Each structure stands twice: as C-alpha cells, then as structure tokens.
Amino acid sequence: MKIWSENMEIIVDKIYENRSVESFLKQHMSYSRGLLRKIKRSGAVIVNGTPVLMAHKLRAGDVITIEISEKGSDIQPQFIPLEILFEDKEVMVVNKPSGMLVHPLTGEPGGTLANAVIYHWLNKNREALVFRPVYRIDRDTSGLVLISKNRLSYNKLLRQLTERTMLRTYIAVVEGYMPASEGIINFPIARKTGSIVQREVSWQGKSAVTRYKVVRTLPSIGASLLAVRLETGRTHQIRVHLSHMGHPLLGDTLYGGRSDYICRHALHVQRIKFLHPVTGDTVDLYCPAPSDIGKLMGSADEIPDF
Question: Is 3.90.1140.10 the CATH classification of the domain at 3-71?
Fold first, then answer.
C-alpha cells in the first residue's frame, strides 16, 4: 500500500484570533469531522514549529502546518494528451473528451482522465499527487472537469459546490420542444430497480433539482438546444430529468433518446466559474462544444448565462 504524506502551511488571519485549531480547520479550511479524526489519529498539527492539540488557541499571524498521512493512489500513470484550460499549484481544469471515464474501474484500469492527469503531474513536477476531481461527469459527457491538487483546495471547492456558489453550465440537445422557455425540474432520483446503471425518478429517491433555459429550437432535427444548471448532483441527473419530461438527450439510448444524429448523449460542460481556493479570485472558464454537438447546434457559440 502506498502512503501519501501531504503538508500544508497556512497563516492565521486576525478574524480567527483566540479560536481553537479545531474551529479554524472546520471554518477556514472546511475540514469534515472525518478528516479531523484522521488528523488526530495519523497526522499532526504544528503551530510555529511546535506540535499542538486541537484545543490550542490561535493568534493572528500564527503559522499552522497540517501533516496528513493517508492511503495513496494506485492509479497508473499513462500518457494521454490533455487539453488543460487552467493550472496552478492548487487546481487544474481540463476539457474531458466524450468516451473517457474520469476515474478507473476494476475492469478498466487505464485510458481514463485520472491516468492522464497522474502522468502529467509526474512528467511536469516529478510528483505523484492524489487525484481529486471536485465533481465527476459521465463517460460520454464532454467538457470541463475541475481537479484539486491538495486537500485544502479540495475541501474549499467542495464547499462551493455544495453551497451552490460554483457555477457549472451544461449545454444539452434534447428531442422535441420544451413546454416553457425556462424552468426548474424538481423530482427525486433513485437507482432503477433491477439495474446497477440506470436511474429513475422515484419518490423514494434523493432530492434532485435541475434548471434549464431554451437557447433556441432546432426545427431541422426536431430538437431544442438548452443551457442547463444543476442545483444538486445526482448520478445521471440531467439525463434522467429530461427523459422524465419526455425530452431525452439526443443520442442517449439508455434513457430513450434517438441515435440517428449523434452516437453519444448530447451533453457538454461548457462553462465553470468558481473562486480560487487560495487567492479568492474569480476563475471563469469556457470550453466550446465539440464538433459532434456543434453540428447539431448549427454552431459552437458560447451559451449565455441564466
């Protein structure tokens, strides 16, 4: 088993004066209770060079070093060309092509985004970081994937995702014409009985909310181009919700879509907007639709905000 040691150094701001280390880690670094237990069990907190307990009171200007040891990744590095839209010491954003898994499976250990990213990091920095995608997208969904390079950044970005302050805009081409120019689809989603892959709308499922706006209709193919935003992040959420509304994604044969115009579901993460986890600056990235969806759209123009 590989053991990964990750050290982080943070300077305490004045607003955290007289707070405990534990309070600081929860509020400033967004550490979960599980992670705090892991630090207590197999890590260390060092303030100004001296190991301290979680109850230790902090002063403005204190330098905290967090040391964490955990099971490392067994993902094998593999050279696969990457389209990187943004990268620094904390995060990277890549444009994942359709047909590629984000993370390896037991029966499919290679050819994934994770294999490619690990290779890239080793080749660039000679350092095998832990692969931490802030969110995942389906194999056949293309577009922007946000990846964190350390646990501090991961936790801060995950908080933005769960608090809905991170913006992700998808474009989708669906069959037919939506009943309204924009709307909210609010139906719970659960795993479909008897299937390990499919999901369905079910009142026994988890809450799921999808927002959409019709960008334009595409009469030549009997379809509509939508901009879509997720309020929640259930597996196959956009695909299930739109299919349930009677407007499956073109190419999404799993959920009733036609495959005569495109050979994969017509879904692409076109834009992501978030606050940088260290600098606080706004990072706003855009990725045009690939050619297969672009042909359906009539163009690969940027979709406006909504």
Answer: no
